[in-house]
Design brief:
The structure holds two protein chains of two kinds. Chain A is α+β, with helices and mostly antiparallel strands. Helices cover 46% and strands 19% of the residues of chain A. Chain A folds into two domains: 78 residues, Phosphorylase Kinase, domain 1; 132 residues, Orthogonal Bundle (Transferase(Phosphotransferase), domain 1). Chain A has six helices and ten strands, in the order E-E-E-H-E-E-E-H-H-E-E-E-E-H-H-H. Chain B folds into two domains: 148 residues, Nucleotidyltransferase, domain 5; 163 residues, Nucleotidyltransferase, domain 5, CATH 3.30.420.40. In chain B, a hairpin with a 2-residue loop joins strand 7 and strand 8. By secondary structure, chain B is of the alpha/beta class. The chains are: A alpha+beta, B alpha/beta.
Chain lengths: 221, 340
Amino acid sequence: MDKLKPFLIKKGAEANLYLADWHGKKVVMKKRSPKKYRPSELDEQVRAYRTIHEPQLMHEAKKGGVPTPTIFLVDLANATIIMEFIEGKQLKWLLGEATEEERQSLCLKIGELIGRLHKNGIIHGDLTTSNMILNPDDKIFFVDFGLGEKTKELESKGVDLHLMKRALQSTHFRFAEDCFEAVVKGYSKVLGAKNVRDILDKIREIERRGRYIAERKAKSE
Amino acid sequence: MTKKKASEQYCLGIESTADDFSVGISTFEGEILANMISVYMPEEGGIHPREAARHHAEVASKVLEEAFTNAEIKPRNLSIVAFSQGPGLGPCLRTGATVARALASYLEIPLIGVNHCIAHIEIGKLQTDAKDPITLYVSGGNSIVAAFDSRRYRVFGETLDIALGNCLDVFAREAGLRQKVGLPFGALVEKLALKGGQLIALPYTVKGMDTSFSGLLTAAVNLLKKREYSLEDLCYSLQETAFSMVTEVTERALAHTEKKEVLLTGGVAANKRLQSMVKVIAEEHNARFRTVPTQFAIDNGAMIAWTGVLAYQHGAVTPIEKSFVKLRWRLEEVEIPWIS
């Protein structure tokens, strides 16, 4: 087999992804490049923080029953993570092509996986259908935990699910509502109806925020 | 006396969603003939909706008169009246809506309710020649990243709590700064930030394409009270952190949508540092960068007038009985027939 030279597979906003050969394994190198618009100090802080936390969260997610690529190496100096390459297709494309029935079952499964993350106190931080890959064994892998965090706070879970909803609305607006409904159904299978009610209430609260608040005082001491 | 062509058609737009009361007049071809803005600036504290509404009611007739004088037309020359129907502060919106309804009924011409956020994007496009941009709209009331896709503007990112402009305003107020007409809080913070240079660690909160500024504001205000750092350094750090956050999410949306233009608008768009940051990401993605001139970036009547024209030309008229204001009217709820 020819040795694979690293080549760019995705120029993202936050990081570039390269497909590469690493000791005979097909891997993805995720490199967070410096951002010129930020002051370099802030830029280094942000990139280092995300490079350390992302692999930790991916590992935790895997332990919690959510498929994620295996991490091989974290190169902090270069803000680079080397991880397993997942063969498959992004859900972003699949949802659009799928039949109504397939779409429902995919979304149900997505909901279950988000439920498992949250049950284990993992917040993904960027739940979009571009960050989910269906492999040939019909397993959905979650990737890109760069904006994630570990917390059991209701607020964070609410924001996480709210992001999923918003991502569906902006990318899959034709069937966003049905999709989100199925996601919530899958989610409640894992977390139970009571927890889900609380989280849905939270989402409504979040949605009411942010736009036109007449007066707000800083919560200072 | 009017030197305008008799065949020319005009739309008058009334903007009153928050602290500004403004009247703009646009021709149906998009020539802005007037854009008069009266700002309500409280002595202390933030915007009190009822106080702001009282200001709007008091200045309404004067601002209308100025607009007609500037445009050199008479009320009877108008073809339509547009008003900002939402989102915004209830009492303020209602004041503008009342003026618009009165004018439309008296002149017996159609009334058009316009979404404030969409108007910001449309006037921005008109003034900068942008065709299909990713828009970063940052003001005292909104922080939104939006772009057009399939009949509607879609919100890709927005604030999860307070708006970016609000964050800067409250910080400035807590620091005891005094704004005046022509020198708002944002400009005061910008000036001080230029003299700062030490970056103080503050919460940097990006969630997906959304941002949060309340934790940042609280942390900055707490540091301010401890008096360990200079106000200049705090202003600098607050700006650098907050602007980096919105620039990051704009870049994410840009990478996601692959649009070829970035439009920066809203009151905060006047900030040179923010402009330079957004310009960097636009260039990196081979997109053209456009900043909306300040008089059309802040809340203004011209944007309502122009968007009213677009809506009217595509058959969207608001019957008086359906002209109630919508306090939380999201921009993606509106179908946009004028973009194919």
